[in-house]
Amino acid sequence: MVTPVIELNRIEKEYPGVKPLDKVDFAVRPGEIHALLGENGAGKSTLIRVMGGAIKPNGGSMTYLGKPVSWQSPKQARAAGIHVIHQELALFPELSVAENILIDGQPRNGLGLISSRARHARAAEILSQLGVKISTHAKIDELPLADQQMVEIAKALVGEVRLLVLDEPTAVISGHEVDLLFDNMRRLKREGVGIVYVSHRLEEIFEIADRVTILKDGQVAGTGPVGDLTRDEMITKMVGRRLEQIYPPRRKAPASGPDILKVSNLRAGHRVRDVSISVRPGEVVGIAGMVGSGRTEVAEVIFGTRDLDGGTIEFEGKRLDRRMPREAIRNGLGFLTENRKDEGLFLGLPISANVMAPDLAGITRRGLIDRRGERDIALEQIRNFAVAAPSPEVKVGNLSGGNQQKVLFGRWSRIARKLLILDEPTRGVDIGAKVEIYRIVRSLAEQGVGILMISSELPEIIGLSDRIFVMSQGHVAGEIDGASATEEAIMDLAVRSVDRREGKAARLEQVA
Amino acid sequence: MSAVVAEFRRNRLSLSYVIVVALLILLVVAGGFLSDRFLTWRNFGNLFQQLVVLGMVSLGQTFVVLLGGIDLAVGSLVSASTVFIAHFLEWRPDLLWLALPLALIAATAIGALNGLLTIVLRVHPLIVTLGMSSIIFGGTLMYNKEPGGSVPRGLADFSYAKLWGIPVTAIVLVAVFALAGLWLQRSRSGRSIYFVGGDREAARLNGLPVNRIVVMAYALSGLCAGLAAIFLTARTGVGDPRIGAALTLQSITPVVVGGTILAGGRGGVLGTLLGVLLVTMLNNLLNFLNVSSYYQWVIQGLIIIIAVSIHTTRRRQ
Predict the structure, then answer these.
(1) What is the C-alpha separation between B174 and A404, in angstroms, rounded?
(2) B191:A369 CB<8 A
(3) Nearest C-alpha of chain B: how many angstroms from A380?
(4) Which residues of chain A neighbour B188 with C-beta distances below 8 Å?
(5) For labelling, which of A46, A106, A114, A380 has a CA lying 20 to 30 Å from the CA of A39?
(6) Residue B148 DSSP symbol
(7) Residues A373 and A468 occupy one common structural domain
(8) Per the domain annotation, does A254 fall within a domain?
(9) Under an 8 A CB cutoff, do A393 and B10 touch?
């Protein structure tokens, strides 16, 4: 039996009133990719922090490379070879790639000054190990998220790394970016690095992980080789109940009636080149495609937060002229953005204010806001969408990701009487909340609302959509019927290049 | 008034209010022991009269800070307005009805211009208002270097008028605060200030007229500075191009002491009112104890740093 890289024995962590970790056993062998599964709040983050030295456990013991250890600080754990890459990347947006990679150990020249040339050489060397082409001179905030993530991984490779912890790395990337990440994980694995991999996407677990440990309410609900558990068994262990059906049934007959939204030959910036899509009342229309294929930008143009360069947007047969969110909202459109914390919610304000923000007029009586009316509506939405909150006065910043998302549904379902645009509606929420969100989406559609849903998760797109548009490089590469769609068919369209010359370049890139 | 009470009830556990009220009580008790003239009706009458100007300016500052901005032009704007009012009234004392509205309109317009510039030029409000402050100050000095002008009897009387022993100006101030509280909590435009201050991008996405709200908040700050200038001119009887200089910093202190965070989106006018009371009472007591104004400046600086640091630590936890 090989000595595990890290082994946790009966680790406990307790805060007043909550016990995020309750006698947890967990071990990672060298050269193993160990998936850590669990709903939000199951204790994954706490476990990661214990391993990385950010949290001291109240009980239990930990051995690292065969020796008992008790980290005093994250710095100590990092010096010993443990690297944790959090979901929120710890990069300096204004500094260059090289500076970020070598943040802990800037190479110095003979005079003891930081040597810029040595820094770029060293950073380039590490990046080439990872097989990515990123300029070491580029500033972080000029890079797409996927590249930023690679920079974060490159940081871990500067020193000796024995244990790499990745907290939901694929939440912000998609398609071949995920492949590149997985390739690098496999390479590190061959070098004997132990990898802890946290993800909500079960499909990825089956693809990449060797073993899996499932946490439920701070306890280990199951552990073993990935092949020993089926997808359904994993879900059952995670949520503690059987999920007969993740996706609600699709509509029986195809939606009829005139289009509620008709977008023709839309052009905007360099990301949206020629997009024509349509949505009928009561229909869930999915938009699939790689990150960067222009999906989000299309949604932004429709809602009026991004300028349009050409083409037309017709809403209920009428051209949308004044292009601003206020006008869209007045017409019965809602937009649940991809980045709920930066672009959707007022984290410091209570649930009630967040629900009512786009509709203050609706609760104003004789010039004054009707507080009771506001509270009643908020309470009703909290009940409708099963938001776990004791009262409408709770600040939204104190809610979990899944509940924040439900608050947004509570807000927009009232506003979006005609059309609701969803951009990555289940990003960063646990499987239980996902299932609830799927039900909400379908029931809104059943009430006659048209739904336009952007998602990077293909099972979600296929499971929920009546029709699917696949985008590639700013164009609609194809339309697929939801009921007969397969992941292969979507991917085939998503990587297809519309422009020949560009297509060749893109393919070459993939080969290289 | 009911809105202020409602705000208080909702925030009754808010730590900053508890701290400020506790400090106020402490100050009154300590003042009673340290000076036999402090706890008198006469002194409190004076005190209320003193806090009116600072109260008005701080109220305007509260709107802007709630929005996530800051207005460093208020001091100069108050000075300039006193000069305008006093000189206009020296020229035509009979046109009081015209002078005061004109002063208010001009002050409001300059405030609105501040807000507009932050939007159009995308320059940080700190710089826009600091620059505007310098422009106003210089402009006023070009016109008039020394205190001058005069006010008619009626306006001066108003400054010292009392109703049931309470200065009328203080009653007006409390009424304006109550109105502002009601407006912030219960009107669409008032509530929108919290949205824009909480998250400007989210506010835009929720269909709120963000630019209009920004301009409105700065305009209100200008209006409040104009009102403060009326009170000030009435009391001093002259227009003084330097009288408001200290008010800029002084107006921020009660706002942050009262729990409105500089990042915007959280706080309210009741906290500011309590903050004004605290700062004014402290200076009043220090005067009684013959502490030099130099120390008062030092203390003022310490208070603002400590108040902000308390909120930052609390938020980090």
Answers:
(1) 39
(2) yes
(3) 20
(4) 360-361, 364, 369
(5) A380
(6) B
(7) yes
(8) no
(9) yes
Residue of A nearest to B189 (CA): A360
For residue A371, the chain B residues in CB contact (below 8 A) are 6, 186
Nearest in space to B181 (alpha carbons), one of B273, B261, B256, B259: B273
Are residues A235 and A297 part of one domain? no
| Chain A contact set for B9 (CB, 8 A) | none
Q: Is residue A248 part of a domain?
A: no
Give domain status of residue A251, yes or no: no
Q: In chain B, how many domains are there? A: 1
Cα–Cα distance for residue pair B271/B19, rounded to 1 Å:
11
The sign of the CA dihedral B232, B237, B239, B245 is negative
Residue B55 structure tokens: 């109260």
Q: How many structural domains compose chain A?
A: 2
| A264, A312 contact by CB (below 8 A) | yes
- Whether A342 and B201 lie within 8 Å, measured CB to CB: yes
The verdict on a CB contact (< 8 Å) between A335 and B202 is no
**Contact A368/B199, CB-based, under 8 Å?**
no
* C-alpha to C-alpha distances, A339 to A43, A145, A422, B263, nearest whole angstrom: 24, 13, 11, 20
Q: Digits of tens for pLDDT over chain B (317 positions)?
A: 455 555 544 544 466 788 888 999 999 999 989 888 888 888 888 888 889 999 999 999 999 999 999 999 999 999 999 999 999 999 999 999 999 999 999 999 999 999 999 999 999 999 999 999 999 999 999 988 889 989 998 888 888 888 887 889 999 999 999 999 999 999 999 999 999 998 898 899 898 999 999 999 999 999 999 999 999 999 999 999 999 999 999 999 999 999 888 888 888 999 999 999 999 999 999 988 888 888 988 998 898 888 888 777 655 44
| Residue A476 domain boundaries | 261-511
For residue B149, the enclosing domain spans 2-316
Burial class (CB in 10 A: 0-12, 13-18, 19+), A448: middle
- Chain-centroid distance of CA A210 in Å reads 23
**Shared domain check, A493 and A416:** yes
Render each residue's pLDDT in chain A as its tens digit; 512 residues.
688 999 999 999 887 666 788 999 999 999 999 999 887 667 888 899 999 998 899 999 999 999 999 999 888 998 899 999 887 778 888 888 988 888 876 666 667 777 788 888 889 998 988 888 889 998 888 888 788 888 988 888 888 889 999 988 876 677 778 888 899 899 999 999 999 998 877 788 889 999 999 988 888 988 999 988 888 788 778 776 554 567 888 877 777 788 999 999 999 988 899 999 999 999 999 999 877 788 999 999 999 988 889 999 999 988 877 778 999 999 999 999 887 766 689 988 999 999 999 999 888 988 899 999 999 999 999 998 888 888 898 888 888 778 888 999 999 999 999 999 999 998 877 777 888 899 999 999 999 999 999 998 888 898 899 999 999 888 999 999 988 888 878 878 887 655 433 444 444 444 43
Q: In whole angstroms, what is the distance from residue A99 CA to residue A106 CA?
A: 8
Specify the CATH number for the domain of residue B170. 1.10.3470
Tokens describing residue A277: 């899509």
Check if the beta carbon of residue A196 is closer than 8 Å to that of residue A36.
yes
CA B228, chain centre distance (Å): 8
Residues of B in contact with A393 (CB under 8 A): 10
A231 and A271 share one domain:
no
Please give the sequence-ordered ranges of beta strands (E in DSSP) within B124-201, or none if there are none. Answer: 162-163, 166-167
- Pair A213, A309 in one domain: no
Give me the residue from A346, A367, A369 closest to B199, CB to CB.
A346
Interface of B with A (CB under 8 A): 6, 10, 182, 185-188, 191-192, 194-195, 198-199, 201-209, 265-266
- Residues of chain B found within 8 Å of residue A337, distances taken between Cβ atoms: 205
